[in-house]
Design a protein that fits this description.
Length: about 450
């Protein structure tokens, strides 16, 4: 059978673009359809603009610290519109690079929504054109989810809209204690917005190491974010220019804007996957094997639509492994273990490997090494921010199972540390590495004493 394309990719985000460019480099006929903008969630409405917003919000704190280092400046003023203009100019540039790189690789880019009409058939929704393809790759990413039972969706922002929000509200309520909610709480508070963060659990960042959760939770409160725990949204109402956020415990928060940051879900609804017979799990994610193959021989999926590990670099590596396997005769499986990840809270979090709780459950006897300290940069400013560093070690063979950092440059540090952890480094390997002084990271190789919980006071 003759096909119009050897590969048709739905989604021009990180995973789809990497897979399509590599496939096209082999001489394969490749097409990509993107209903929004090339670059996907990360470039257009995710990690890149988010990190620019983190940078922008941190400058206020830096200005407050200038005097301690001898700098004298006049009254500072933040212009949010000016920042948004500069940020979106950069996003436009990056999106253009993604589109240009695709076309230069030989792939054809269709800037419209595509849906499946069969195992080898794709239809472009706006133009109505149909194409046949030997292989179809689903790389449509994810989208903000809405929690069941919460009313008033029409009065609420999602993370997508936060990158265009102008003017800044005076009062903002954020629902969700995951990384999106925590990051935007720090950003908005840094911009001077009165910020309230509401989460169901007793601490933010569920799933992270408990020491990390406690540290970030305390830092949010210390920096002026009001954190409400053990409660969530019941419904949101609008009253003139205000929002009334009704909580499940009966309280009502009055604010100017509400952000729902209750997680993300695979963007698979309406793609025609059921028509093609592609299996989805109960969360709507595409079910795939280690080679990103679905139950339909001609259909594959990478990135957030599979709900494996929803990180941009993971989507890229999955897309690369797909192209190597299917177009370069190099069967490749991407290893999803020991992936470093970060939360751009303030201060940021960098993590690789197991939490203390996971390590105890999976490996039994473990040793913990941890320290908290004020970073050198803040010793002159009087800022009470603390750094947390923690190493989780398997007791019987001294292997480092996890490293957790909360503090300045934690994401930069954890990227390098992840190499050692991935290689199977032991605590002794860390110990015999010479420290780089003065630095925050040197604490990782100078922690020699095992940590033990404080002993309870004896009864009198």
């Amino acid at each position: 059978m003759t096909f119009d394309f050897d590969l048709f990719t739905i989604g021009a985000g990180s995973g789809g673009v990497r897979a399509s460019r590599l496939a096209a480099s082999t001489g394969a006929r490749v097409a990509v359809a993107e209903e929004s903008r090339a670059g996907g969630t990360c470039v257009v409405r995710g990690c890149i603009p988010k990190k620019y917003m983190v940078y922008a919000s941190e400058f206020g704190r830096s200005i407050d610290h200038l005097g301690a280092y001898g700098w004298r400046v006049g009254p500072a003023h933040y212009d949010h519109r000016s920042f948004l203009t500069a940020m979106h100019q950069e996003i436009d540039r990056l999106s253009g690079i993604y589109a240009r790189n695709l076309r230069q690789s030989g792939a054809e880019l269709f800037e419209e929504r595509a849906v499946l009409e069969g195992p080898n058939q794709v239809r472009l929704v706006q133009s109505g054109r149909t194409f046949s393809a030997r292989r179809i790759l689903i790389a449509a990413g994810g989208r903000p989810s809405w929690p069941d039972g919460v009313g008033g969706r029409e009065h609420v922002l999602t993370s997508d809209e936060m990158f265009h929000l102008h003017p800044l509200p005076e009062r903002l309520v954020i629902f969700g204690g995951g990384y999106i909610g925590v990051e935007f709480a720090g950003i908005m508070s840094g911009f001077g917005v009165e910020t309230t963060l509401v989460c169901r659990s007793e601490r933010v960042l569920r799933g992270f190491d408990e020491d990390v959760r406690a540290h970030v939770h305390d830092e949010l409160a210390r920096k002026g974010v009001r954190v409400l725990t053990g409660v969530f949204a019941d419904r949101i109402e609008r009253r003139d220019d205000e929002r009334l956020a009704h909580l499940t415990d009966g309280r009502v928060l009055v604010c100017d804007q509400v952000l729902m940051a209750a997680g993300r879900e695979p963007y698979t609804h309406g793609l025609g996957l059921e028509t093609a017979g592609v299996a989805l799990d109960r969360h709507g994610a595409v079910v795939v094997d280690a080679y990103s193959r679905t139950n339909v021989e001609s259909v594959f999926a990478v990135g957030d639509v599979t709900n494996r590990v929803n990180l941009t670099p993971v989507a890229i590596r999955e897309g690369q492994a797909f192209a190597w396997s299917e177009f370069m005769n190099r069967p490749t499986v991407f290893d999803h273990e020991l992936i470093p990840h970060a939360v751009f809270a303030q201060p940021p979090v960098g993590v690789v490997g197991l939490s203390e709780e996971e390590a105890r459950r999976l490996h039994g006897e473990i040793d913990i090494y941890k320290t908290r300290f004020r970073p050198m940069k803040d010793m002159l400013t009087g800022d009470e921010e603390r750094v947390l560093m923690k190493i989780v070690v398997r007791q019987h063979d001294d292997r480092v199972l996890g490293v957790h950092i909360v503090g300045p440059d934690a994401p930069e540090i954890i990227q390098a540390v992840a190499i050692a952890v991935k290689m199977g480094a032991s605590k002794a390997d860390f110990d015999r590495t010479c420290a780089l002084h003065p630095s925050i990271a040197e604490e990782l190789v100078t922690m020699k004493d095992k940590w033990s919980p404080p002993k309870a006071a004896s009864a009198v």
